[in-house]
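tokens incoming
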């Protein structure tokens, strides 16, 4: 299943963890800045964040959320079942992608980034989603360049009923 890409107008905002949660919980993708602000307002309310959070001064980090906040949002939306796995000495993203299971979805937290990974019926048919778009196995060189040797810190395994 191919999911909606992040609109170009929203790519400058650093909401990778929130975007991964949107994909995992199957929430509607905000298509413009007004929809994005509405999503941020809803998330602020769910997470009980102060109104000064994600001010206009730091658009690069607007919408950035941590792993506990991601788990809280996933619990709130109840769109799927999930469990968190931690990797003390995590593998690199490329190595981790070789061990994914078919017909599964993941939210992968790297050092300072979060991505959503969807695996098809065949283990090698995965898609990585972030603000830049969707990437497949054909884009491994670009993913290596973009994420380099980023180690996988935590993985949220998402299962749908």
């Amino acid at each position: 299943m191919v999911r909606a890409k992040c609109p170009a107008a929203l790519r400058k905002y650093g909401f990778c963890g929130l975007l991964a949660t949107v994909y995992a919980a199957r929430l509607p993708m905000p298509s413009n800045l007004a929809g994005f602000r509405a999503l941020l307002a809803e998330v602020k309310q769910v997470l009980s964040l102060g109104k000064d959070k994600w001010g206009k001064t730091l658009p690069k980090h607007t919408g950035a959320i941590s792993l506990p906040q991601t788990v809280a949002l996933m619990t709130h939306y109840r769109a799927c079942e999930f469990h968190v796995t931690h990797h003390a000495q995590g593998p690199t993203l490329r190595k981790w992608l070789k061990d994914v299971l078919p017909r599964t979805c993941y939210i992968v937290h790297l050092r300072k980034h979060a991505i959503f990974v969807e695996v098809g019926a065949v283990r090698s048919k995965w898609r990585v989603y972030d603000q830049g778009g969707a990437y497949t196995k054909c884009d491994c060189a670009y993913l290596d360049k973009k994420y380099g040797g980023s180690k996988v810190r935590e993985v949220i395994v998402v299962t749908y009923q």
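note: Residues 33-47 form the longest helix (15 residues).
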